[in-house]
From TrEMBL:
PANTHER family: AMIDOHYDROLASE-RELATED DOMAIN-CONTAINING PROTEIN, AMINOHYDROLASE SSNA-RELATED
Signal peptide: none
InterPro entries: Amidohydro-rel, Metal-dep_hydrolase_composite, Metal_Hydrolase, MTA/SAH_deaminase
Residues annotated as domain Amidohydrolase-related: 52-393
Name of the protein this chain belongs to: Amidohydrolase family protein
Pfam families for this protein: Amidohydro_1 (PF01979)
The UniProt record lists the keyword Hydrolase: yes
Keywords: Hydrolase
Organism: Corallococcus soli
Source organism, top-level taxon: Bacteria
Amino acid sequence: MGTVLKGGYVVELEPASVERVDLRIEGERIVARGEDLTPGPDDEVVALSGKLVFPGLVNAHHRLASVLARGLVRPTPETYQAQLEQLRWPFENALDLDAVQVAATAGGLESIQCGTTTLFDLHSSPKAVTGSLLRVARGLHEVGVRGVLAYAVTDRMGAVGREEGLEETVSFARKARGRFRGQVGAGPVFTLGDDALQGLGEALNTTNTGLHFPLAEDPLDERLSTERHGNPPVTRLLNGNLLSPRAMAAHAGHLEWADLAQVLATGTWLVHTPRSNQGLEVGYAPALKFGARASLGSDGASPDLFAEAQAAYLRSREAGQPIDVLRYLANGHRLASQVFEAAIGPMREGALADLLVLDYLSPTPLTAETLAWHVVHGLGSRHVEAVMVDGVWRVWARRPLSVNPTVVAEQSREAAAAVWARLTP
């Protein structure tokens, strides 16, 4: 028994194409594509009547727990370092395991309602480390989204905290399966001593995965890394053999060209997070220089990849360095395909069936040549009508099928109140 999507316009991002064809899905994969496919006797037929069939979006760098910080009223720090020390780190310290799971469900629900079917989460809860990634996975499992999870190892809580973080990120990477995979995670490089870098290298060898970490989000990363540890971040990462085609560096907004070139030479993925960078007032990252392995992530901003793509393109235009927004989105699929060792993103036979149905009535011709402009100026999360992950409908008629949004929101508000109460004045 399969599912046949009939009468839709199937979209591919790179090379761009918009074609009116049918798709047949069986199990977790697309098994046929063609004009006017004939359904089998037991197939479910979904008449799309000209709606778009779009690849499920990939959020390459997110922080699910940040959903519980939305609206948190605190004094606005004047510097990036103060923002970390007065807001982000105290918030992470206030998380317990129950809050971690609730945040994953709430953040995962927002993600899938916005059309994101795969997200890469870099998690940190220094006072609730052991078992935290499993709780994140449970929260995402309730929603049905695909997740790649890492714990952000740091020396910020001392050697014991560092070792707990290493154990957590390695333990999850070893046992993750199905819709989940693990990576080795790290905090900002200036929070990592030499022992931490050595431990990360050993963890990468043990798990055969890549490193997921923030890099040069602010000039503070280079300054403190040099002051505390004798070398700038890129030099330390290269000396530790931590950069590779499996590694993912988020932000990369404050690297000298020589350092950026060295990062690019290792094949490391670079994840552009324009809305988060703008919100933190850390400046614009030169995304046009990020090379062929660059994608998009939302960091602590809302998990809306359509909004992220639009912000990325418009900010790049403002900087006089316009990027190819379709390539950035398509690279998310390439990254997810690499991690899951299966085709994710192509609307072709053999690919995993992660897709969206968009109810978008285009006011102008929608073709391969105009697709990028519709993504930048027209398409949005408001058009997401249905979402399929691994061949299973997770959202239908704009309603999540496995969770009650009202209940999720109530639980999230309760968890947020408890976390806020634990924050020191």
